């Protein structure tokens, strides 16, 4: 884990919590985005816990730099923000973040979220997907770079169907029930779609689904 937050007390609190877990270790702390990028390249952490609002280089720019670095493809960014009220969350997801948590998150939820992202799953609950991602990701963003080309034609009809349902905020179990298949089959289709479209995780697959017009709010 790499911690990136300009509040020293908050970083120390997170470090104590994370280091108390046998399966986690903090390898560095950054007080701004530029430092976070440098430490990420030096330590290649599995997860970067990234605050959005920091002086100098903010968390959005740092997220984009980390997720856009081919040498850090295995590193995932988990964003800390003011949960479903912050439009910057959508920009962070566009930049490559794998999920987000509110700063008022409980200790257990924080640790669960870290483990979720570390397992290559996106920390995007169905509620969050419907309430935030559909609202902001599909909206025009004059500051955003054009959407990366995604060869949707490479997906099978079922892969497109499963991807669209996931982007609408359905859980694997809900998709499985609607399509009369097993949750494992759903996960297999999603994994194949991620591979074909070059999406590092479910969060990026959802972002591509909206940005390419496969799904509209």
From TrEMBL:
Q: Which organism is it from?
A: Streptomyces typhae
For the Response regulatory domain, which residue ranges apply?
1-118
Q: Tell me the GO molecular function terms.
A: DNA binding
Q: Which GO terms describe its biological process?
A: phosphorelay signal transduction system; regulation of DNA-templated transcription
Q: Which Gene3D superfamilies match?
A: 3.40.50.2300
The protein here is known as: Response regulator
Q: Does the keyword Acetylation apply?
A: no
Q: Which UniProt keywords apply?
A: DNA-binding, Phosphoprotein, Transcription, Transcription regulation
Q: Which Pfam families match?
A: GerE, Response_reg
